[in-house]
Amino acid sequence: GCRPKELKYQYEEYIAKELENYTSESILLIMHVESSWMASDEGMLTDGQWKKLEVATLKNADNLSSSPKSHPLFADLNIKSPTGGKGPVAGLPFRHVRRTHSGKHIRVKKEGAGGKGTWGKLLDTDDDCFLDKNDPNYDSGEGAYDELVDSPVSDPLDDYKKAVVSIIEEYFTTGDVKVAASDLRELGSSEYHPYFTKRLVSMAMDRHDKEKEMASVLLSALYADVILPDQIRDGFIRLLRSVDDLAVDIPDAVNVLALFIARAIVDEILPPVFLSRSKKNLPESSKGFQVIVTAEKSYLSAPHHAELVERKWGGSTHTTVEETKKKISEILKEYVENGDTYEACRCIRELGVTFFHHEVVKRALVLAMESQAAESLILKLLNEAAEEGLISSSQMVKGFNRVAESLDDLALDIPSARKLFDSIVPKAISGGWLDDSFKVNSDQDGRESSQDDKLRQYKKDTVNIIQEYFLSDDIPELIRSLEDLATPEYNPVFLKKLITLALDKKNREKEMASVLLSSLHMELFSTEDFINGFIMLLESAEDTALDIMDASNELALFLARAVIDDVLAPLNLEEISTKLPPKSTGTETVRSARSLISARHAGERLLRSWGGGSGWIVEDAKDKILKLLEEYEMGGVTSEACQCIRDLGMPFFNHEVVKKALVMAMEKKNDGLLNLLEECFGEGLITMNQMTKGFGRVKDSLDDLSLDIPNAKEKFELYVGRAMDNGWILPEFAINDE
């Protein structure tokens, strides 16, 4: 019958590799595979390869009958030994088949070597041949060899594949997560678990919504406890690579697999960064790439996407989750009333949701904060559950993290929530049932925890200020509001809140946020404020990505734009990167920002990065700059030109003024335009950084300018000399110029 495509691909690669130098082992392998496949017209050798194989057979005639070992590729291709297992289809011996020029296979005569174009009788053996121990030429080693050849080759992966299909089928019938997990654990061969992930999902894809839901539930249950996170990820990578084949039998394979991936991200068994990393490794024309795009755009970018994804297959898991949460609350309330730790642990164990124990931890901690009288009982329960191994350390940490992340919301109902939580953490760590590493995380998360009430009020005020700015686009009013708050120590917090709010809005608001950063840099914020604000943003990048799918890419754009707008210097990116954990999402974001900045025409592209939000502003500004320079060149007044530049209100874009002034001075042969630059620099209207950037942009385009202005390079050298003498540009510019 038909072989899987991946098997054929391996075989084709093998033929191509062995084509020039067939060995006795490769000849045996190819003869066996061709004889097994040709009955279904699936032989792979071309006419030219058949001829090469015939010549190789003649050269290796002495070795073919005594090759002592099966080729190792037999196991890789999941093919039994040539004489073991099933023979050629329908009992058709290889020697009685030949390939025609049309590609079909025909029987040839048994005797007479088969006629013209066949291989003769070199490899023919009588069907009824047997070993005769009385034969004077009998070799006792031949019998042992026959037994070795006749014995089937055992492939652990093949055995594993058969076993997991049985486990999955049984699970789809019974729905018993515990039994499936136990069977998979007992099966062993944990190195093959990526295949289990792939097989479970691919089998569910071709079934009803019930089985799809069951598959997602099982993956969540097995995550970390039975199947490692990397193995889950590798399984989905394999699915993405094979979706083209799956689509042959499952017409909506792209959509279904996209939903499985979205569900895995919602269930937190795949990190959101899986999408962007997979995109980089898949051809844009592949169905795997389509799967990622569909998951991003159709399922994970919608408001309330988590609830929508959970209910997509009929709401089975959603109902289960809600029921489980309700049961957990009931267990905890009953425990607080009777204080029976043993009974509470038994009830938690009977829930059978080890992957969801972080919810037990979260609800227990919230209950302890709501009722201080219950705190000692709750801590006792969590301690007991940890000692029994009922709640794993990873689930415990996850539960504490969830509470830490929701403290601001909890504080609305429990004013002293943060204080209570901070008092519980050291007790848990000293009791040995919360990992010491959480204290570090808690300290980092506590960056904003000093002066709780004041900070909480500041955050509330700044949200209102930012929302009003997005409606009014009034930068001066926003700056006045921040000055009235008189809390410059919280400037980094404002920056984090501004960009976080903009990330979840349209391009218009993102552009407004970048423009505001430039204005704040000129008026109110220090470079250190911006550095600390971006560090805070990047430290929480992974959490932000749970709510905003493209958060990492958008943050990279904000970082790169800040450099282009002179809010940050390129060296500041290095400083930010050193303060982030290595190999974290934040570090990856900084790396992406560097790539954006180093790209060709990075300035123009980044200024237009949010489409229409900045496009008309930039183009309009360029037109106004050109007109004011033309008026000035024709005899305008310097003070009026400076006022026009000031009225543009785009100090971050003043490098365009410098560039156009230098180019116009070359074209019009009017060096008087440099007097305007001198005046702007003297008034502080154009900064040294903007001046240097403008000179740099002209320098980068000198080759193009020389086509229209033959002496452009000579003129530019004179302008650079004047700028250096007057201190308009950075001293390093001359070094770069050389």
Automatic annotation (TrEMBL):
<feature type="domain" description="MI">
    <location>
        <begin position="159"/>
        <end position="280"/>
    </location>
</feature>
<keyword id="KW-0539">Nucleus</keyword>
<dbReference type="Pfam" id="PF02847">
    <property type="entry name" value="MA3"/>
</dbReference>
<feature type="domain" description="MI">
    <location>
        <begin position="323"/>
        <end position="444"/>
    </location>
</feature>
<dbReference type="GO" id="GO:0043022">
    <property type="term" value="F:ribosome binding"/>
</dbReference>
<keyword id="KW-0810">Translation regulation</keyword>
<dbReference type="GO" id="GO:0005829">
    <property type="term" value="C:cytosol"/>
</dbReference>
<dbReference type="GO" id="GO:0090549">
    <property type="term" value="P:response to carbon starvation"/>
</dbReference>
<feature type="domain" description="MI">
    <location>
        <begin position="457"/>
        <end position="578"/>
    </location>
</feature>
<dbReference type="InterPro" id="IPR003891">
    <property type="entry name" value="Initiation_fac_eIF4g_MI"/>
</dbReference>
<protein>
    <recommendedName>
        <fullName>MI domain-containing protein</fullName>
    </recommendedName>
</protein>
<dbReference type="InterPro" id="IPR016024">
    <property type="entry name" value="ARM-type_fold"/>
</dbReference>
<comment type="similarity">
    <text>Belongs to the PDCD4 family.</text>
</comment>
<keyword id="KW-0677">Repeat</keyword>
<feature type="domain" description="MI">
    <location>
        <begin position="620"/>
        <end position="738"/>
    </location>
</feature>
<dbReference type="InterPro" id="IPR039778">
    <property type="entry name" value="PDCD4"/>
</dbReference>
<dbReference type="GO" id="GO:0006417">
    <property type="term" value="P:regulation of translation"/>
</dbReference>
<dbReference type="GO" id="GO:0045892">
    <property type="term" value="P:negative regulation of DNA-templated transcription"/>
</dbReference>
<keyword id="KW-0963">Cytoplasm</keyword>
<dbReference type="GO" id="GO:0009646">
    <property type="term" value="P:response to absence of light"/>
</dbReference>
